[in-house]
Amino acid sequence: EAQVTQNPRYLITVTGKKLTVTCSQNMNHEYMSWYRQDPGLGLRQIYYSMNVEVTDKGDVPEGYKVSRKEKRNFPLILESPSPNQTSLYFCASAKADNTGANVLTFGAGSRLTVL
Amino acid sequence: SQKIEQNSEALNIQEGKTATLTCNYTNYSPAYLQWYRQDPGRGPVFLLLIRENEKEKRKERLKVTFDTTLKQSLFHITASQPADSATYLCALSYTGGFKTIFGAGTRLFVKA
């Protein structure tokens, strides 16, 4: 089944304790992206990657890092989490059609709480 | 910066009626606009995509219009069903497609 898999689905951690949220897709998509979703603010893009070893900042990159060493994986790293990073996180991937349009396939989400 | 506005209030309609959701944006028009459905506790799921040079797109009971003059897209669900109850997200993408900006979504409730 074509899918985007995120882990963990739920995590409670404490301020300053480094964590990684993994994201893997099995559709051979070039494009991958991370979003956070907060009430009333919608989905905001954190980082995206156009292909292996190519990453760039989205609208809210502060406090996050990413890497894209393989096409299928795009982990999100919080080096020193803070309470304002408590949120619902979504990973997405896409393969551009012949006009350059990216239709996103989302993971199930990772709910992170930082105490 | 680009802003997207969707009905912030929930939309309540009776089963069988047509639901119409609005997406307004400021500034420059996107290369294409998408609509996604999101159920509680789940990731958004793609529904329809419409390009800047298209006026209307249909898929089964769904219809999307795109007016670049008004800077607005309308999303219609005809013959709505309780199973259509969900949050619907509007998303704008620009040439290259690397940046997709989402609205906050409109919650739709369809009553039997």
Number of helices of chain A: 0
Helix % of chain A is: under 10%
Largest β-sheet summary of chain B: 6 strands, mixed
Strand content of chain B: over 45%
Largest sheet of chain A: 7 strands, mixed
What is the beta-strand fraction of chain A? Answer: over 45%
For the largest interface, the chains and their residue counts are: A-B, 30 and 28 residues
Number of strands of chain B: 11
Radius of gyration of chain B: 13 Å
Structure class of chain B: mainly beta
What this model shows, in words?
Chain A has 115 residues and is an all-beta fold. Chain A contains no helices and eleven strands. Chain A has strands at residues 4-7, 10-13, 19-25, 31-38, 42-51, 54-57, 65-66, 76-78, 87-94, 105-106, 110-114. Helices cover 0% and strands 54% of the residues of chain B. In chain B, strands 2, 4, 5, 9, 10 and 11 form a six-stranded mixed sheet that branches. In chain B, strands 1-3-8-7-6 form a five-stranded antiparallel sheet, with no helix packed on it. In chain B, strand 4 and strand 5 (45-51) form a beta hairpin. The mean pLDDT of chain B is 92. At the A-B interface, strand 4, strand 5, strand 9 and strand 10 of A face strand 4, strand 5, strand 9 and strand 10 of B.
Please describe the structure with a list of short key phrases separated by commas or semicolons:
heterodimer, A: 115 residues, mainly beta, 7-stranded mixed β-sheet, 4-stranded antiparallel β-sheet, globular, B: 112 residues, 6-stranded mixed β-sheet, 5-stranded antiparallel β-sheet, 0% helix
Secondary structure: elements and pairs:
The complex is a heterodimer of chains A (115) and B (112).
Chain A: E1 4-7, E2 10-13, E3 19-25, E4 31-38, E5 42-51, E6 54-57, E7 65-66, E8 76-78, E9 87-94, E10 105-106, E11 110-114
Parallel strand pairs in A: 2-11
Antiparallel strand pairs in A: 1-3, 3-8, 4-5, 4-9, 5-6, 7-8, 9-10, 9-11
Chain B: E1 4-6, E2 11-14, E3 19-25, E4 32-38, E5 45-51, E6 56-59, E7 62-67, E8 72-77, E9 86-93, E10 100-102, E11 106-111
Parallel strand pairs in B: 2-11
Antiparallel strand pairs in B: 1-3, 3-8, 4-5, 4-9, 6-7, 7-8, 9-10, 9-11
